[in-house]
Amino acid sequence: MARLLPSIISLCFHYVIVTTVFISIPRLTHSSTLEADTQILRALKHSIDPSSISPISYLNSWDFSVDPCEGSLAQFQPLSLDSENLTYLSLSNNEFAGPIPDLTGLWQLHTLDLSSNQFHGNLPNLPMRLRSLLLNHNILSGHISPVTRLTHLRKLDVSDNRLSETIDFFGEDTRLQVLDAEYNRLHGYLPVNLVTIRNLTTLNLAHNLFSGTIPREYGDKPGQSWRSLYLDNNFLSGNLPPKFISRRARLTGSLANNCLRCPTNIPLCRGGQRPGSECVGQNSGSR
Fold it and tell me: How far is Cα 118 from Cα 220, in angstroms, rounded to an integer?
């Protein structure tokens, strides 16, 4: 059975919460959607391949001949309306296909969930106020750099895509707490500047093409902010940072299936390592 679109979009100013089994649908009074938000919603709908939209998808209710905040709820189901600006947008789990258009105009958007679809192409320019960005389980490719400017971002999940190039992003001013980029094609050395992210607690770069050694700076993070670290199934080599061993009880995760000299009594090393020869061609040199 085709799946319905579980989209929840926060748009308008006045509302009364109506509780249902699945979503909260507000009643509208007098307000109107910003034209910029309406235009971007229209562009997003038009960017999706019509053949990937189920006949019973709620996306078919998006009738832009009326204002989303002034029309019948039946025309824009399911919507949650709480301000004149769009703050939450989810089109997850629909198998929608197509590129993602430029979304920077949604300047008040704090949550964007486009996960578990078939969106493809490069990452677009994104709203600067995003706090949660979920693009996992798509076919996105190219560079991850468009997200580096999002200093309000707290959670980023781009796992299970085709992102490549090197990773060198995020500065000290970011508020990022969770970074999940596993199952991509990211390569090069592990980015040292990730240790400067003060609030980062979860880092998952497993199942990529990273090579070289684990930066010694990573050893300072267990026992400070890092609680979870997954670097398994890459092509890393060399010794572990010494503090990975002394602080092993404070960090969960995995370093398995690399070419590391990883003591078997370290929980992070459970699962074994590749033969060293498998990493020779991947390494582009030592640090």
Answer: 38
Contact yes or no for 211/274 (Cβ under 8 A):
no
More confident residue, 148 or 214: 214
What's the burial of 30, exposed, middle or buried (CB within 10 Å: 0-12/13-18/19+)? exposed
161 vs 242, residue with greater confidence: 161
- What is the assigned CATH class of domain 91-280? alpha beta
The residue among 230, 202, 213, 215 whose CA lies nearest residue 286 is 213
Radius of gyration, CA atoms only, the chain: 22
- For 114-142, what is the HEC assignment? CCCCEEEEECCCCCCCCCEEECCCCEEEE
Helices (H) and strands (E) in the chain, counts: 3, 16
Q: What is the pTM of this model?
A: 0.83
CA distance 108 to 46: 22
Beta bridge partners of 237: 259
CA–CA gap between residue 175 and residue 276 (Å, rounded): 37
Rounded CA gap, 154 and 68, in Å?
Answer: 29
Q: Which residues pair with 228 in a beta bridge?
A: 202, 252
Are 250 and 268 within 8 A, CB to CB? no
